[in-house]
Design goal:
- This protein is α/β, with parallel strands linked by helices and 382 residues long.
- It folds into 3 domains: 208 residues, P-loop containing nucleotide triphosphate hydrolases (Rossmann fold, 3-Layer(aba) Sandwich); 49 residues; 90 residues, Arc Repressor Mutant, subunit A, CATH 1.10.10.
- The protein is built from 16 helices and 7 strands.
- Strands 2-3-4-1-5 form a 5-stranded parallel β-sheet, sandwiched between helices. The protein has a two-stranded antiparallel ribbon with strand order 6-7.
- The protein is globular.
- It starts with 7 loop residues before the first helix and ends with a helix.
- The model has no long low-confidence stretch (mean pLDDT 92).
Length: 382
């Protein structure tokens, strides 16, 4: 298994701000949203650093990746994860219950939690609500519950997802303001589409309007130093200077996978005659767009009409509108050199959505899923 660069200090800081907030961090109890480009280490940090830190402090943590199955409704993914956690809490031998007993000193008499509802009632019409379920978890655990939604912007792509966010807001409002509550419901959303994540807290019609939105703290020069030290320990010579490596890492958008690929190419290019500090920036500049190539290849494989539609969406300033209009069909036809019928557009858009290249932002509104892919596309069209 590849060695993971750990960020324990960042995890401890963020966990402390969430679970034991000072005066200036009390607003985080309304919700915290972190945004950062894809493949910059967000998910790795959440799963290997932040979740264990929160759990070590006694919180019940539920992590859901809304991109784990983009064909399944975000609400369904959340409900499944919540049911799984509740199932562990009612099972006396589960690792989750054992950890809570150890950290919080819970005395359950050899039993698990006892809920006043059946687990299969969660999310069903007329059944138990998320607010009711999480209230019982907070009360019986005597502590905080943290729900983390990775790629949270997916929630607003469906009406069901929007309703789920409203249900989570209702959960927060039902638990946190209670006098003498033994714990809080804390919501953390992360996403790779900065504009959409910001809208989740900035627009009045959004469930978590007024919550805190912050940029994800990307990997910094300490990570670059860590990689160079490991390579030095493996005997790789000559190595680039830390300054040249850091500049190249920034060129690559703070993406660790691309940075390691660039260093791998550097190792294979010893016969180029160039010094590492000269060669690595060239490699980084060449690789910069390779992270987007796989996504753009999906567009090309769907066909010329898909490319024309993607181009129209990518060039839009904000959410793209009117992509099914007669005027749009005419522009697509001019781009691909044949007549395009309006009824041809929807099936192709559906394929782009299924490939997770485009995302639906509302009724008749579309955007490019990954802003970095959009940026590379526009650079290449100049």
């Amino acid at each position: 298994m590849p060695e993971v660069f750990r960020r324990p200090l960042l995890a401890a800081e963020l966990a402390g701000r969430l679970l034991q907030p000072g005066v200036l961090d009390e607003g985080l109890r309304s919700g915290l949203f972190l945004s950062g480009l894809r493949r910059t280490g967000k998910t790795t940090f959440l799963r290997t650093d932040l979740v264990p830190e929160l759990e070590a402090r006694g919180a019940v943590v539920i992590y859901v990746d809304l991109w784990s199955d983009i064909k399944t409704s975000p609400a369904t993914l959340v409900q499944a994860a919540v049911r799984q956690t509740l199932s562990q809490l009612v099972t006396p031998s589960s690792p989750l219950l054992a950890r809570l007993r150890r950290i919080k000193g819970l005395d359950l008499g050899g039993m698990g939690f006892r809920f006043g509802f059946q687990l299969d009632q969660l999310g069903e019409a007329g059944g138990v609500t998320l607010a009711q379920a999480f209230t019982e978890v907070v009360d019986q655990s005597g502590g905080d519950v943290v729900l983390i939604l990775d790629e949270v912007q997916q929630a607003i792509t469906t009406e069901e997802g929007n309703q789920m966010l409203l249900a989570l807001k209702a959960t927060r409002d039902a638990i946190n303001p209670r006098p003498g509550t033994p714990g809080s419901f804390l919501f953390l959303g992360t996403g790779s589409h900065r504009a959409l994540v910001s809208e989740l807290t900035a627009r009045r019609n959004q469930a978590f309007a007024g919550a805190t939105s912050l940029p994800y703290p990307v990997l910094d020069q300490e990570y670059v130093r860590y990689v160079l030290e490991r390579l030095r320990g493996e005997g790789m010579e000559p190595l680039p200077s830390e300054e040249a490596a850091w500049t190249s890492f920034q060129t690559l958008g703070h993406r660790p996978e691309e940075f390691l690929r660039a260093l791998g190419q550097l190792r294979l290019s010893t016969s180029s005659g160039l010094a590492p500090d000269q060669l690595l920036p060239v490699i980084a500049a060449t690789l910069r767009g390779s992270a987007a190539d796989l996504e753009l290849l999906k567009v090309e494989q769907i066909g010329g009409l898909a490319t024309a539609i993607f181009d129209r969406v990518a060039r839009s300033d904000g959410p793209a509108r009117g992509i099914f209009s007669a005027e749009a069909a005419l522009s697509y036809g001019e781009a691909i050199g044949r007549e395009v019928r309006v009824e041809e557009i929807q099936p192709v858009v559906n394929e782009l959505l299924a490939a997770n290249v485009l995302m639906r932002l509302g009724h008749g509104l579309y955007g490019v899923t990954d802003p970095f892919v959009q940026e590379i596309w526009l650079e290449r069209q100049r």
